[in-house]
Design goal:
This protein is α+β, with helices and mostly antiparallel strands. The protein is 32% helix and 23% strand. It folds into three domains: 209 residues, FAD/NAD(P)-binding domain; 87 residues, Alpha-Beta Plaits (2-Layer Sandwich); 51 residues, no CATH class. Helix 1 runs parallel beside helix 4 and helix 8 packs antiparallel against helix 9.
């Protein structure tokens, strides 16, 4: 079968787009990344990533994939002051039922500044000879064959909005994030509507950078604290700075006013550890807020007529509530699946199979996020039918994790997407959960 692989276009130069371009460069003669921003050469904020001011967790599974695509990434992060943290010894985890038990299993995580991580990846992708960046360029729609069955490229315009030219491609990958216009583009070429599932837990969050944060107890280097409706995280960002990100469910949002921000932080789970850490610390940034937290899953596998030559991945396909820090890892898993398909299938076959593979990749993180979101009665959306039983079960698993290191390690591995969820439903753990309420606390 003829399988032209001359040119691939990636819409969006953020992390998902950079990962996609890296993989596509192994299979196409040319790869073009189109982005609406002027992309900085070094670490710097940009308009297209407003969420960069907030904490970003690089989960264990996602870090493995990124380091496979970009060897020595861990070293580059360490040089910039971002070290790997041992999830069982160097991170303090507080749940509504208490502090998680420390454990020694090798589970690692880090929370690099978004601008730093993106700049490191962008520099590596710029060095790939067959990859070209076309900046300050907006994609206005898809170019398709007259029957709409194959996408052949994209319509683009310049920063002023004037249509500039058309770009031809053998494959177009949309990685343009939460603001993706893919459903509209597909309807314009006759593909029909793209079904969506939306879950909105009415989460708002706010973040601020501090210098001079006091040492945490027990040798912890970072904290993740979760109350009934409020969440707080404090993560090292290099140069002696720490980022504190606060989140609230059900409309209980942190304030942009300084004293209210600090009161919100101190109130999480009625724990004084944050107040102690910030006593004497100096704020070195404004308070940045966001309410862009709706989980949206686009079911491209159900689109009435899927055209060949077009794929969607990352937040453009499934944007998750950022409380769970799954976004970068889900993007990495999407790209890993794409790379696997490109190894032994034609581009036409990849486009036929990828939406179903994408659905499989998204399924677990989506269910995990939805189950947690629906703990709050004000959450809007389609509640999973098994949510009540699963929530009661996981509450007991979290409680057991405050008492037993082995269960704590198993729980964190699942949250890091390094282990499958079935590792939390083994016969031994099921027995412990069933008998938990009658056991005395240790």
């Amino acid at each position: 079968m003829v399988d032209p692989r001359r040119h691939a276009i990636v819409v969006g130069g953020s992390i998902a787009g950079l990962l996609a371009a890296r993989v596509l460069s192994d299979h196409f003669e040319r790869v073009t990344i189109l982005d609406r921003d002027r992309l900085p050469l070094e670490e710097a904020p940009r308009r297209g990533v407003p969420q960069a001011r907030h904490a970003h967790g690089l989960l264990g599974r996602g870090r493995e994939i990124l380091c496979g695509l970009f060897p020595d990434l861990d070293t580059e992060l360490a040089v910039a002051g971002i070290s790997l943290l041992h999830a069982g010894r160097e991170v303090g985890w507080l749940y509504p039922c208490g502090w998680q038990k420390p454990f020694s299993d090798a589970v690692w995580l880090c929370a690099p500044p978004r601008d730093l991580l993106e700049s490191l990846l962008r520099r590596r992708v710029r060095a790939i000879p067959q990859v070209e960046f076309v900046e300050e360029t907006d994609v206005r729609g898809l170019i398709a064959t007259p029957d709409g069955r194959r996408v052949q490229g994209v319509k683009i315009s310049n920063a002023a909005g004037a249509e500039r030219s058309l770009l031809d491609a053998d494959l177009v990958v949309d990685a343009s994030g939460r603001g993706s216009r893919a459903p509209r583009w597909l309807e314009e070429i006759g593909a029909g509507p793209t079904p969506e599932t939306i879950v909105d837990a009415h989460v708002g969050y706010a973040s601020r950078l501090y210098a001079g944060v006091a040492s945490f107890p027990h040798g912890w280097q970072a904290l993740f604290l979760r109350g009934t409706r409020r969440v707080a995280g404090i993560f090292p960002q290099g140069n002696g700075h720490h980022l504190i990100t606060l989140m609230g469910y059900a409309g209980d949002h942190p304030s942009g006013e300084e004293s209210e921000f600090l009161r919100f932080a101190a109130s999480v789970n009625d724990c004084g550890v944050i107040a102690d850490a910030l006593r004497g610390a100096t704020a070195v940034s404004p308070i940045h807020k966001s309410h862009s937290t709706v989980s949206r899953r686009r079911h491209f596998e159900r689109t009435k007529r899927r055209p060949q030559g077009f794929l969607c991945l990352g937040d453009a396909a499934c944007a998750l509530n950022p409380v769970y820090a799954q976004g970068i890892t889900v993007a990495a898993l999407c790209v890993q699946s794409l790379a696997s398909l490109l190894e032994n299938r034609t581009v036409v076959q990849v486009c036929e199979v990828f939406p179903s593979r994408l659905n499989e990749v998204i399924s677990f993180p989506w269910q995990l996020a939805a189950l947690e979101d629906f703990r709050h009665p004000t959450t809007r959306g389609q509640r999973p039918w098994f949510s009540g039983l699963t929530q009661r079960y996981t509450e007991k698993v979290f409680a057991l994790a405050t008492q037993e290191a082995e269960i704590a390690a198993r729980l964190v591995k699942v949250m890091q997407m390094a282990s499958p969820p079935r590792s939390l439903v083994t016969p031994g753990l099921l027995w412990q959960v069933l008998n938990f309420s009658t056991r005395p606390k240790s």
